[in-house]
Fold:
Amino acid sequence: EVQLVESGGGMIQPGGSLRLSCAASDLTVRTNYMSWVRQAPGKGLEWVSIIFHEASGGTTYYADSVKGRFAISRDNSRNTLYLQMNSLRTEDTAVYYCARVALWTTVTTFDYWGQGTLVTVSS
Amino acid sequence: DIQMTQSPSSLSASVGDSVTITCRASQSISSFLNWYQQKPGKAPKLLIYAASSFQSGVPSRFSGSGSGTEFTLTITSLQPEDFATYYCQQSYSHPMYTFGQGTKLEIK
Structure:
């Protein structure tokens, strides 16, 4: 059974940095497209970032709201996805989910999700 | 950027009722549209992909339709476990994605 387990969340002051981890089991991060999606308290879902699988060069993309501040990466030896978050703002407060991105012929979906980790940016 | 707008934002219904949720895209997205269900404190769950295809294990009372800019999610014969928040998501602009704002389905 595929499992994605996020960790690394917590409370941080504005301007600070945090690194989130997403450990995968029964799924190889290296050979999959992987994403981060966040959800502010009481709000909807917002796509944050994606990393292509190794065969596609590991290309990364970011939402405009985090571009230049966040960096997605993976450690193949640990089968773990990361999100390095710098220059954090209060509006980055959210539950952060990692998700596997499944590419079908007709659509792309988020088909496996972790349980989420809460990041609170506050002074 | 493609904007996704769901309506209504919330609705109340009773067990056994049928409900329809609408999702509109700011431009044509063909059938690149997915639906998710989210319960409080839980991760979203994929229900429908490519506008009308069922994810494995999803009950047949859920159905999706539409193409272009207008899509619907219909739930017939509502069950207690269906009360949740539903999100649409477009993947036309892969690898940049957007979700609708969500529709909260509550028990009347």
Summary: The mean pLDDT of chain A is 96. Chain A touches chain B at residues 33, 35, 37, 44-47, 50, 52, 61, 63, 97, 101, 104, 106-111, 113-116 (CB under 8 Å).
